[in-house]
Amino acid sequence: MTTFVDQVTLHLRAGHGGNGCVSVRREKFKPLAGPDGGNGGHGGDITLVADPQVTTLLSYHRGPHRSSGNGGPGMGDHRSGANGEALDLPVPVGTVVSSADGEVLADLDQPGMRLVVAPGGQGGLGNASLATTKRKAPGFALLGTLGWEGDVVLELKTVADVALVGFPSAGKSSLIAAMSAARPKIADYPFTTLHPNLGVVEAGSSRYTVADVPGLIEGASEGKGLGLEFLRHVERCAALLHVIDCATLEPGRDPLSDLDVILGELAAYPVPDGQVPLIERPQLVALNKVDVPDARDLAEMVKPMLEERGYRVFEISAVSHEGLRELSFALAELVDADRAAKIAAAAIKPRIILRPKAIDESEFTIRVEGGTETLYRVLGAKPERWVQQTDFNNEEAVGFLADRLAKLGIEEALFAHGAVPGSAVVIGPGDSRVFDWEPTLTSAAELITSPRGTDARFDDNRRRTSAGRREEYKERMDAKAAARAELEAERDAGIWDTDSEVREGE
Question: Which of 43, 59, 401, 455 has the most crowded Cβ, counting Cβ within 10 A?
Fold first, then answer.
């Protein structure tokens, strides 16, 4: 059974970046010829593409989990890893992309529009790329970052110029089949149409699309029947055509009451901000099935009443094609007027101003969180990415991370927020890595050339002068003379006897 799906949730996982390589070039008579580790490849992006050849989201309803390729790791001899394979997902024109929280990300209402909805991870740098004049042989490389992973919601809103609305079995499918080359399913029972059908109509030099929206009933805007599910497809239409069944045999129904019910449902349906409400858009009325004698009499009776309300009314028959030519040209007039208004609005569109990033704009924020102990959380794209790229099993890599964070100004910001040595600092949201912060000494930094964890300023490295050496020599000689005098005094006092010690030694 064919199923129409116009709203799905995609579970996406973009490719992860590859790790950089740690490698040292070895040549004959030159075992350590410098670092040659290559960079890791970037992860593949997941992109949504508006494709006119795609008309439904059914394939994503059956397979909502999609992922792109991971980047390859770097290798020695300056060989970079391969980039992950990107993934393009074709979607129908008119697809609205939203986040899991309901925030609209993009409206793909033009063919060929592209949206990178899940960016791939960044590949890590190898030790060859990390080498500098001061760090000539890095013993570490950067890890690849994770690709974006999460959910997005796709909602299809049919892009058509005219929407046919009316009760079930009013003849909308027959009308679109008679006016265009569309061949929708037609039967003599309610709710035959289970999804919108599109047809292209040509009226003179005008060419426009017509959408057959599934039948509306009273309470459709509140979720009754199939109307609420498909009223979203009316949002993009420039004009509405009310198709009224003049040959219905259901008790309590007549053309005027049917029109009032449909108008009430259109008025109750909320449209996005900036769009014209459905009830205020140009509308025509088509009294259908006038090929039936009783229906023709009813149409002739109610037509003046509808015209008094301000509607332009057409008596038509989808079976005999009576009145269809006049109706198609009337709809073309509404569509051409709407297109001309859009062109005029686009001509006076306000100028787009691109403002550069402020120089003093902070690249991170610090949030103080309470609990059993005060926690300082650092949030920002750069520090969070740097933590992902760090191999915490490598002390040199950890030191490189500390240097980057200090250069970014995080230590000064922590001081300003009241952090003290030993405070718990976490970088990133959620359960990220927690550090016991030990600030780096920055005063007189040009004198600090010792390894991390030591301070050369505490060592006495003063050079000795000639006078100092003479004084040291005299002190040493005086100490030896004092020692000899002490030994002579002990011997004169009889504390020890040289002859008896010699005899005992024999």
Answer: 43
pLDDT (tens digit per residue) in 84-100: 999 999 998 888 899 98
Is 171 annotated to bind a ligand? Reply is: yes
* Residue 217: pLDDT band with limits 50, 70, 90: low
193 assigned ligand-binding residue = yes
Which own/partner pairs from 340-348 qualify as long-range (CB within 8 Å, at least 24 positions apart)?
Answer: none
Annotation-wise, does 184 bind a ligand? Answer: no
The pLDDT of residue 498 is: 56
Domain residue ranges of the chain, discontinuous segments joined by +: 1-156, 162-347, 365-457, 466-505
Q: Is 112 annotated as a binding residue?
A: no
41 is in an annotated binding site: no
| Nearest of 306, 56, 343 to residue 195 by alpha carbon | 56
**Distance of alpha carbon 273 from alpha carbon 340, whole angstroms:** 22
CA distance 143 to 121: 10
CATH number of this structure's domain 365-457: 3.30.300.350
Burial of 245 (0-12, 13-18, 19+ CB in 10 A): buried
Q: Which residues touch 316 (CB under 8 Å, ≥6 apart)?
A: 175, 286, 287, 288, 290, 322, 323, 324, 327
